[in-house]
Design brief:
mainly alpha; 81% helix
Length: 178
Amino acid sequence: MAKFKKASKKKTAGSASAQAQAEQLSGKLSESAQQIWLAGVGAFGRAQAEGTKLFEALVKEGLSFEQTARKFAGGRADAVRDAVENRVGVARERAADTWDKLEKVFEDRVQRALTKLGVPGRDDLNALIDRVDALNAELRKVNGSAPRKQAAAKSAPRKTAPRKAARKAPAKKAAKTP
């Protein structure tokens, strides 16, 4: 056992130096951990102080981008609205032109049909009215009577709307069959 004690004494001397190194290493690790901790606390403090400023700067920058985007979108919306209004206007003009042409074709066909049926037109009626007025004037001259209410009516402006003719077509004599 004595030998064992001697070896144990040698180990304790080596162990003391290892223990001293371990304590040194432990102190260095504690010091490093302390510095890391303090660096983290400092970073947290700085992030807190500058984070608010950074947050506010980001909010301002976001508002600026949003305003720019709204202006761009508003400009595009105005351009699209103008384009649509122009196209609607062109379509409206085309429809009006087409409607006018259709109306003219319809009027021409109705006029031709009325002419074929022997219905007098506006010009024919106006000429007939002028002829009747001239005949009435001649009759007054011949009879020597003063013009009556018709003369006052003649001075009134004439209506330009066509008058309805109450003229009946002459009845054809039916051929008697034996």
